[in-house]
Amino acid sequence: MDFRINFGDWIESGLTWVEDNLDWLFDFLKVLYQALYDGIDWVFTTPSAVVVIVVVALLAYLARGWKFGLGTALGLLFIVGVNQWDNAMNSLSLVIVSALFAIIISVPLGIWAARNSTVSTIVKPIMDFLQTMPAFVYLIPAIALFRIGVPPGIFATILFALAPGVRLTELGIRGVDKEVVEAGQAFGASPSRILRQIQLPLAMPSIMAGINQIIMLSLSMVVIAGLVGAGGLGGDVTKSLSALDTSLGVEAGMAVVILAIILDRFTGSFGNKRIKSLMARWFSRLPGGGAAPGDSTAGKTTDQIRTENRAVKQAGLAG
Amino acid sequence: MTDTIALKAEGLFKVFGKHADTAVRKLRSGTARDALPGGATAAVIDASFEVKAGEIFVVMGLSGSGKSTLIRMLNGLHEVTAGTVTIGDDDQVTGASVKELRDIRRKRMSMVFQHFALLPHRTVIDNVAYGLEIQGMPRAEREAKALEITQVVGLAGWEDKHPSELSGGMQQRVGLARALAADTPILLMDEAFSALDPLIRREMQEQLLELQSTLGKTIIFITHDLNEAMFLGDRIAVMRDGRIVQIGTPEEILTDPANDYVEQFVQDVDRTRVLTAESVMRKPRAVVHPSAGPHGALRTMRDEQLSAVYVVNRNRTLVGWVTDREAIDLVRKGETDLASIIRTDHGAVLQSTFLSELFIPAIESELPLGVIDDKDRLVGVVPRVTLLAALGGTSGAEAQEGPRLDPLPTEEVDEALDAAVETGSIESLEGK
Known about the structure:
The structure holds two protein chains of two kinds.
Chain A: H1 7-21, H2 23-45, H3 49-64, H4 66-81, H5 85-115, H6 117-132, H7 135-146, H8 150-174, H9 178-186, H10 191-224, H11 232-243, H12 246-268, H13 273-285, H14 302-318
Chain B: E1 5-17, H1 20-28, E2 40-52, E3 56-60, H2 67-74, E4 82-87, E5 91-92, H3 98-107, E6 109-112, H4 124-128, H5 130-135, H6 139-152, H7 168-181, E7 186-190, H8 198-215, E8 218-223, H9 226-232, E9 235-240, E10 243-248, H10 250-255, H11 260-266, H12 277-280, E11 287-288, H13 293-304, E12 308-312, E13 318-323, H14 324-333, E14 349-350, H15 359-364, E15 369-372, E16 378-382, H16 384-391, H17 410-423
Parallel strand pairs in B: 3-8, 3-9, 6-7, 7-8, 11-12, 14-15
Antiparallel strand pairs in B: 1-2, 1-4, 4-5, 9-10, 12-13, 15-16
């Protein structure tokens, strides 16, 4: 007897069914992704590189101080120097669009999972699946659904980057001191108020770490997405691989590294004191604005958060 | 304190795990807690009690005795498995809808937590105002009220700090202020002072009693510390393994423990901080009225073999005390007014004074220490022997105190009195 589970065939026929019946959805997504990507890319590529560098360096200075500002400026100048500026901006736009979608999906899903054990039980294996499936595999259905170009890249990136957002959001909310939540209940607060005023603010460091991870994973996936014609730095990396062009590969690769570091430091600073006080000032101008979220990260460095984050990720996989 | 019932719990059960209802039925029919089928853990078993308006009701038990679960059933944080909780006349906590329950928690009872449970991202003032915010009070109004309460608990000047900038004791003051600001008649305090250092704890206990004397809340206080229970509680419920084993005043628990467990428990209690002068005092052996004159006083002292005696008015208010030596001098001089030798430094204590505060006055007093009520009436005396006996846990009723100063020899007194009769200042003894 020939033992063979035709798992791949089943998935493929399922996918064909999706293609035939849900093509309106994917057409819509395709247009949406493309439009967002074009919009953001326009913002980064229309002004001259110098203007973008000055603005980004200034933001970096506000976020973390002059060292980060200077480093950002030098890093971006290097990218211009190795002639990867346009590619880098394309990739950055792709990361921003993908991360945005991943955050919009994963944070509410994480909140839901934290509040409902059934949802948590269902979501957990799905997240394990999404996170461990080799990244390249996502590209195949993505091409089938979106054809070549930027949209399949964005689609595959979203799938790949979802998991840490969901996990760390759930973990953060579940990790909020039980007694503080009880205090909210004991004074008669509604569940939505407890979520808004207690759970989300206290889980903010963890949620921010999740968002940081989403962005990092998006960046790594964006390079792989070069294989399906998403362009950007990934396009050049792919090209150098097929042409065995070391110098091009290293230059594009360095640009990825620089982008990654800048993005990581930016998102890692969301919870720190500097941003907090900036946000508090901004919040206080809004009617009914309370304290800025994420106060409790004060004094915690990005590295600490990332170490915790890594531990969480490993624990999640092991589980 | 009045006799109005503020909160009533009847037959409360809390069983965690599967088959909770079956477990309750089994427990009711006498199955032991340990003998329940697997998967069911009984945290609270058949707890019933009434809390009077304005009293501090302490639930005391070791960890795992179910006291924290019990308090959480009172405001519905834990759903009861069986039994009812009633607030006031007929407002049921058990069986209330989600909305009704929220309403009860907003307006009827607030809570203070063991680890403070403050919102770390909010300032002190915003934490204190939290309950009011949930009640829907406008910002300006609730901040004014929160400011007032913050001052009451002694945190003036700290309003804009974050909880992490405060010491443990101060954080719990914020927790207390938050509960007080909500202005609910009932206050639930779950091991509220257990996480604090001993000195701070004592300070907080005293502050709570002081606040309570002006606010008159109904307080249900959970603790594992018997000394704390004795110090704070008007009445105490002792819990063991999920059951309430005794409910009574601190004195009842101490002097009349319901079983060996409670008795063992109260062994370590500092009795001097629980028992009061009233609980150990004896009837004075003799008193004299000012109108009795030196002769009457001297005669009383001779009859009772005393060297000194308290002087009280007809309505029993304490005037002072006289010694036999001074009385005999007056008799010899032929004076008939006792007033000149009445000493007013009697050092009598109020009947509510704790034993711990009786030692020094007892040493300093020439007589067994006088005990007066709030109308200055002499209601009893505490001989030093009685005080010592009370410390040892015996009633001390048998203990007799010898006089501190030997009374004058009877012959000498008789001689003086006889001499007085001859001079005509009093009638003959024999004629009486």
